[in-house]
Specification:
Layout (H helix, E strand, L loop, with lengths): L1 E2 L6 E2 L16 H10 L15 H26 L6 H16 L9 H22 L3 H28 L4 H25 L5 H24 L1 H12 L1
Antiparallel strand pairs: 1-2
Helix pairs in contact: 2-3, 3-4, 4-5, 5-6, 6-7, 7-8
């Protein structure tokens, strides 16, 4: 039962205004009931815009460490005889250096990381060829390919840092460099005596060139650029 705060007349429970004086009805019971129905916590999930890169790097490092340690134990305790686990450990170490190590640093020294990754890839190739007793492959194939890829990456870094480039133009340049790298590697491995090396390199080269042609068309066509940006942003 409620009464008008102005004239004191008894009000109906569904009334919004006093029938006698027209004063707006204030019902504390209904207001309290409405407040109680509101959830104390929002149902919307809040996703932070920034992610802690160091935490992710530490988590990935632990994930990578566990199988490597398992392979090392299996190699020494269950399947001894050769050091096959060294190949797995060195491959994981190379991937960690290239992909995970930069996440531990807030400010990246681009050229230092480029030089460091080049040395890491060259050292990995040397250890792998030495373990396979094929050092001649290192000097004739692995080392020239490593130098070529490193030079291409350095050119790409300088090209991107000198001027602001669009995403399509960056992808076009990256695909073009990848196509040339596959073609050069195929030719080099062909002369080194690797069967079907040139054919495989040529097939990959043609496929990537087709992608380069599509990206070049997208870059020149304004309507295609707008369509592609809408598809990638939604």
């Amino acid at each position: 039962m409620s009464y008008c705060v102005n004239c004191g007349v008894e009000l109906d429970s569904s009334a919004k205004k006093c029938a006698l004086c027209g004063t707006q009805v204030i019902n504390p019971a209904k207001a309290q009931e409405k407040e109680e129905t509101i959830a104390p916590f929002s149902d919307n999930v809040y996703v932070p815009k920034t992610v802690k890169a160091r935490f992710i790097a530490s988590l990935v490092s632990v994930i990578m460490l566990v199988p490597n340690m398992a392979c090392l134990l299996v190699n020494f305790l269950i399947l001894p005889g050769n050091f096959w686990s060294v190949h797995i450990l060195s491959t994981s170490a190379l991937l960690w250096v290239i992909l995970v190590l930069p996440l531990f640093k807030k400010a990246h020294k681009t050229y230092f990381m480029w030089a460091f990754d080049t040395v890491a890839v060259g050292g990995y190739a040397f250890l792998l060829m030495n373990a396979l007793d094929a050092l001649e492959w290192y000097t004739t194939c692995a080392l020239p390919i490593t130098v070529l890829l490193s030079a291409m990456v350095l050119f790409y870094i300088i090209w991107v840092r000198r001027k602001k480039r669009s995403g399509i133009l960056k992808a076009l340049a990256l695909c073009a460099e990848t196509a040339l790298a596959f073609l050069f590697s195929g030719v080099l491995l062909y002369f080194a005596g690797v069967p079907y090396a040139f054919e495989i390199g040529l097939i990959v080269f043609v496929c990537i060139v087709a992608v380069v042609g599509f990206l070049a068309y997208c870059y020149k066509s304004e309507s295609m650029r707008s369509w592609l940006s809408k598809k990638l942003s939604t």
